[in-house]
Every structure is written in structure tokens, then in C-alpha cells.
Amino acid sequence: MTSIGATVKEPGSSINNKTGSWRTFKPILDKEKCIKCENCILFCPEGCINKDYDIDYDYCKGCGICAEECPVKAIKMERE
Amino acid sequence: MDIPEEEFLAPGHRACAGCGATIGVRLALKMLGKNTVAVSATGCLEVVTTPYPETAWKIPWIHVAFENSAAVASGVERALRSQGKDDVNVVVFAGDGGTADIGLQSLSGAMERGHNLIYICYDNEAYMNTGVQRSGATPYGASTTTSPHGKESFGEDKPKKNIPMIMAAHGVPYVATASISYPEDFMKKVKKASEIEGPAYIHLHQPCATGWGYDPSKTIELGRLAVETGSWILYEIEDGEFKVTYRPMERKPVNIYLESQKRFKHLADEEKERIQSYVDQVCAELKI
Q1: Using beta carbons and an 8 Å cutoff, which residues of A are at the interface with B?
Q2: Are strands B174-179 and B200-205 parallel, antiparallel or unpaired?
Q3: What is the ipTM, given to two decimal places?
């Protein structure tokens, strides 16, 4: 089979690149305060907060949207 | 609203911290699901999601050139249909440059031919990928590298091109505007677009921290301010029927939106008033 251009055959292979190293401020979630509204999950540009509200620091770039959008201020941004 | 957990855009992509485009794509793909082929125009999204030899996409994805994402999607749609695969969603993600300027003719052609596809324009109101040059979708007064403010200029001197209305003029079955800051509204529209037979167009407003000049944590807040001030209006046109899908309880002054971004910081009161009166006029027509 001939192909023109470039093909990448491994879906989602960008996970090889750990963007957590970009981070200056780290979001810390207080699960006691969390009301499970899903705002942080929906608004994360990396999609790196799972349904149990665990933040994947391998990829979190520290943008702070989750902390900003948390209605009960359960997420604090702490300097790395 | 039941929002599927599964993600079809992997992390590790190179988007700036606080990127609005990747939020939009994540939300759209949650609604479209696994049985989807995505096409991208050249732009931020294409560059940040596919740094060769990696890809962030977990579904089949294709990029050809800047101007032809709608033509490529047309071909993909026809090829799938000829193989009897009528249930596959074909979705285009193109920026405002790839939609309002460079890709407009191929988009118009695809809409005219009536392909069964969804075209989502993620609008960050300038060519962000190449360093913030103005596009047809750049709003009045915004300072970009090709519409800089200074002694001779107050920034972009032309109003934002109204692409959703140009699409509506094609008589396609579904046209909608959306914002990443109103995820349920956006996702409902994506769902509707996928269920409709024929072309659907969604214009997704999406703040850009790098190009607009604000703290990355404010991406959602800025999108919300655009809607709350009446600067961006959420509506849909289904089979020619126009409906506003979100009305702010009380419309905020446009100043709040303008003053929170570096691209509008230079504006004098006179220009701000001109923007406010334009917004007032549009909102009066729509009773917002």
C-alpha cells in the first residue's frame, strides 16, 4: 500500500509527552470540600481529571482553570 | 444532562496552558463518540494535536491543507457512504482563519452540496498559530500584529464577519453558535448536529489566553463574559427557525469584557461606546 504524506498508526500517542513539566502552579483538590459538580473535569484543556476527581500531574500544565471554575473553592493552586 | 466519561483527545498535546480549543474538541467528541472521523484545517489545533510522530487523536483524523477541510470532509463522507457506512459521524474542526478567510469557498461548496457532515469552527478571533494576525473573525477594535494599535490606528477597524449567518444563507438544516463556557448548550447542539441529516455548522466561541492577553485560568470566565455582555450570542437555526438558546439574566456592560483583555486595553472611551452601541443594537433586535 502506498501512502502520501505522513501517517501515525498509534491513536493517542501524545501521552508519550508529559506536559506536567510545563507547570509552575499545581492544583491541589480538597476532596472533603468537593461537591462533585464536574466543572473541573469538563473545563480541563488536557482532560486529565478523571471521574474520581484525581488530577493526573503527568499532564496537568497548571493553567488553573479548574481552581477558577470550582464553585466551592476546593482547588488551591500551589507553587511547585 | 448525561455526559459520557470517555475521552477521545489524549493529553500530552502541545496546546498552551488554558487552551480553549482543546476544551471544545474534548466536549464535542464526548457527544460524537468513537464512531467518528475528524478532519482539521491547518491551525493551532492541527499543530498542537499532531506533533509527528505523535497524535493526540484517539479516532481517525486527517489533515490536508489550510483551505480544504470542508472539501476533504466531503470526500470522506462520500467514501464512507459508498461503503455503506452511513452511521459514521464526519466532523471538521477548523479555526476562524480556516473558516472565515482561507477555507470559505470549500466550506460554501460542501454546504451547497448537502454532505452529511458537522463543521465546527473554533473561533479565537485571529490567526493564533502563526502569532496573532487578524482574520475576518477578529472583532472591531482588537489589536493584533497585523492590526496593531498606535498613533495611526485603534486596532482592527472592521467588524467581525458574521459567518454563522453566511452559513444560514446557504439554507442548511442546522446552524448554531456556541461557547466553551456553556458546555451543556454546546454539547446539546453537537448532538443535534449529529442527528440531523445533511450539513450542520456550529460556530464555537473560544477565548485564547495567548492571543487575547489574559491569565490562562480565566479562559472560561472570558467566554462567559462575552455571552453575559451580549458580545457573543448563543442561538440556533433549525430548518430556518431562529431561536436564542441562552439569554443573560441581566446584560453586563461591554466594558467589563473589553477591559479584561490586553487586545482591547488601548481603546478610548469613544471606541468602547461605539462597541457598546453596536452590541445594544444587535441585542435589541434579538430582545436580549
Answers
A1: 6, 8, 10-19, 22, 38, 42-48, 51, 56, 58-59, 61-65, 67-69, 77
A2: parallel
A3: 0.95
